[in-house]
Design a protein that fits this description.
The chain is mainly α. Helices cover 76% and strands 0% of the residues. The protein has one domain.
Length: 327
């Protein structure tokens, strides 16, 4: 019954997040990203560590930490990014996560790292739009929407949860509903602070790329307060808000709170409080300072993402592995 109650709560959280995103797409996103985001990064990193990052050999996780630091240094010191390097490194880490999940021997893991680097380079160089998918979508929309949806599907199938499947369908339906809803841009009045913070976070670039990939701009210049811009932002605000709320609602299911000792709780609260202060003092400063933790929690989750996809494929191919419902 515990799983059923959590799934019912999540249905409520989906509806709650969607309604708020519909009414306050920019304000809700800023609030979720600033307030809920850092708390999510810190608690999930601690939980991943307790679970050995879902890999056979955790010492290789230092590769992720080093590369995450490498791609966040330009932002922290306001240095120009090397074209293609950011996107290539993220893709390399995602490909390397596959090797960490499937291989145990260090020779095979090392070989998978080398192959990931080579393959990542060729994909970014020669596959159209791969730099956008890897550098823009993978750490953002794919992380908060697609991977969250995969976790929900896996949980619903494993627990034979009707409520869980309803939640999955609602999350899938949300972007469909947004696309057909009539939106009047004049109804959305955004304060100067909210708009400045939104533009500083560079998520306007994400919206622009989404509009390009979905062929929604019709050749015109993207404007975040246009009908298309607002619809995309409603979707982004919903994705991020529900992604965070879903994490906090699952504490009794996946037990992430048990990974926090009293000392860790104090550290998490102190860092989170300091991050709120930085955002309040200067949004850009807070964004830059927390960018490393944001990126780190994304890449450290890659092995778990791979395992989730592997688990869904296994359940589809071999239904007998489905666990009984948790009652």
């Amino acid at each position: 019954m515990r799983t059923k109650k959590i799934d019912i709560i999540n249905i409520g959280l989906i509806i709650f997040s969607f309604i708020l995103a519909l009414k306050l797409p920019f304000e809700l996103f800023i609030f979720s990203y600033v307030v809920l985001g850092p708390l999510h990064y810190l608690t999930e990193i601690s939980w991943l560590k307790k679970n050995n990052y879902f890999v056979h050999s955790r010492k290789w996780i230092w590769v992720f930490i080093f590369l995450a630091l490498l791609i966040t240094i330009p932002s922290f010191f306001r240095l120009p990014e090397i074209s293609g390097l950011y996107e290539e490194i993220i893709l390399i880490m995602f490909l390397f996560a596959i090797g960490l999940v499937y291989f145990n021997k260090w020779q095979y893991i090392l070989l998978s790292l080398i192959l990931s680097a080579v393959l990542g380079f060729f994909i970014i160089e020669y596959v159209p739009f791969s730099f956008i998918v890897a550098g823009v979508f993978l750490p953002t929309i794919i992380h908060v929407y697609l991977f969250t949806l995969l976790f929900m599907i896996l949980g619903a199938i494993n627990n034979k949860s009707r409520e869980g499947l309803i939640g999955v369908m609602l999350v899938i339906l949300c972007p469909v509903i947004i696309s057909v809803l009539p939106i009047i841009p004049a109804d959305y009045v955004v304060s100067a602070y909210t708009e400045t913070s939104y533009l500083t976070s560079k998520f306007s670039d994400l919206s622009s790329y989404l509009a390009q990939m979905l062929s929604l701009q019709n050749g015109g210049r993207f404007y975040h307060l246009s009908e298309i811009g607002i619809k995309i932002q409603i979707f982004i605000a919903f994705c991020y808000t529900y992604h965070y709320l879903n994490w906090f609602s699952k504490t009794s299911i996946i037990g992430w709170s048990r990974s926090l000792s009293k000392t860790k709780i104090v550290i998490v609260v102190l860092i989170w409080s300091f991050s709120l202060f930085l955002y309040w003092y200067n949004f850009k400063l807070g964004y830059i300072a927390l960018f490393f933790f944001s990126m780190l929690h994304v890449v450290l989750e890659f092995p778990l993402n791979i395992k989730s996809m592997k688990g869904i494929i296994r359940l589809v191919r071999e239904p007998r592995h489905i666990k009984p419902a948790d009652t």
